[in-house]
Phosphinothricin acetyltransferase (Thalassovita taeanensis), 162 residues
Amino acid sequence: MSIRAATPADAPRIAEIWNHVIRTSAATFSNLEKTPEGLAQDFADKAADGKTFLVAEIDGQVVGFATYFQFRGGPGYAKTMEHTVILAPRAHGRGLGRALMAGIEEHARAGGAHSIFAGVSAENEAGVAFHAAVGYAEVARLSEVGFKFGRWMDLVLMQKML
């Protein structure tokens, strides 16, 4: 098991993992699937902006990823980040989510970030529990802000001070 920076060669596998989550779960409210080309550009854009996109591997195969970005636009939010972390089912319970989180948190901290947010679907109870276990505190619950699968869903905002 290892954690490393994503490369353009990882984009098809990351798209596969992410699109499965988009199609089958309420873990993200998005229904727009990712493309390898778009992801490769995202890797480059993040690097140019001083951010990172990390992948987790088992036996040389990418099984998860994490990245972060500015929480909201504008200079007043420049030190506040938000992240995305997604694992393939076979990667759950192996410590890779924690390792990915530690990697992006350290990268964000080194870049001057003050805090980092997780926006977690309230229907994703495992995601809420995971974030609590790695030191995130629930700071808000936004009612019916996401719409997917024909229903409204709540968003749990969780924050960790870096």
